[in-house]
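Re-run requested by the PI after the first attempt was lost when the workstation crashed. Everything re-entered from the original request form. Ligand of interest: 2-OXO-4-methylpentanoic acid.
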Amino acid sequence: MLNIRIEKTTMPKRIPAKGEPLGFGHIFTDHMFIMNYDEGQGWHDARVVPYQNLSLDPSAMVFHYGQTMFEGLKAYKGADGEVYLFRPDMNAKRANTSNDRLCIPEIPEEDFVQAIKAVVDVDRAWIPEDEGTSLYIRPFVISTEPHLGVAPAKSYLFMVILSPSGAYYESGLAPVGIWIEDEYVRAVRGGIGFAKTGGNYAASLAAQVKAHDDGFAQVLWLDGVERKYIEEVGSMNIFFKISGKVVTPMLNGSILPGITRNSVLTLCKDWGYEVEERKVSVDELIEAAHTGALEEVFGTGTAAVISPVGKLRYMEEVFEIGGGKIGELTQRLYDEITGIQSGKLEDPRGWRQKV
Ligand code: COI
């Protein structure tokens, strides 16, 4: 259990008004959580302080070798006025999976969740209440030791910042276009693809720019060895409904183990769908698109929630999915997950946690 010091701002910022467009990840609240790690001392000095710039030595190792971990989750204001988090224990576990891979010291799971709750509690007035909005929470660790040698750092910062946000994609719940990338790869097995760390996202940018230039919102990655099997999209996991079955690439070490992915698998099984986590080749997908067996495609992620995919582009071909409209299962999953998250629906699996 952390002993968290709380220092409130004396210069509160303007909280966006109801109905004001928020975008995603542009606006930050009045406070942040911060805690230090030093070798020999462990994690120490947990505090919630006014949101502020950091001062770091230019040789801080994070700037050079990218030893960093981040997470993403959301807080919602329920219809009952309470504030809820969605499965924060899963983020705490995944944070340590990433930490372990990156030689960052683990953060006790209960401390991770306590830190989030502490800062969300202080800034609870910032949680937006318009449909489709939430308070996006970004916990992250950076290595701070001033040293140019390549080695695990001896000092770190763990921080949590908060951003009142709307839909991740500008198009909201409207179906997005996805570009299946056949040149660049994002990750390989044995690498860091399963970890939530900056390098994976830096590796994705060149293809994303290419896709954007062609009018596609995101990139769908193929495996790094054969460039044959579907892996994930830049900011979400991917699902297909093929001849009535729900199919998603199995976790293979280079795919991010998404929390929304896990929730969707549970819901689909509970609703009686046949669900398959397995290798999905791009050839199988294209064949299913040609024959009409490919009924729905959607992405899942904390930021994106459930994001319908309306078209896929592979090599020079573009396939429209479901007439470019939101599929029935996609809509049902979106309604169920956002309903549970915001407290509008029952939560029989205990996924919601009160702050
Ligand atoms: C999230 O969905 O929370 C993520 O971390 C994806 C991010 C790249 C926006």
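Saved to the shared folder this time. The longest strand covers residues 155-165.
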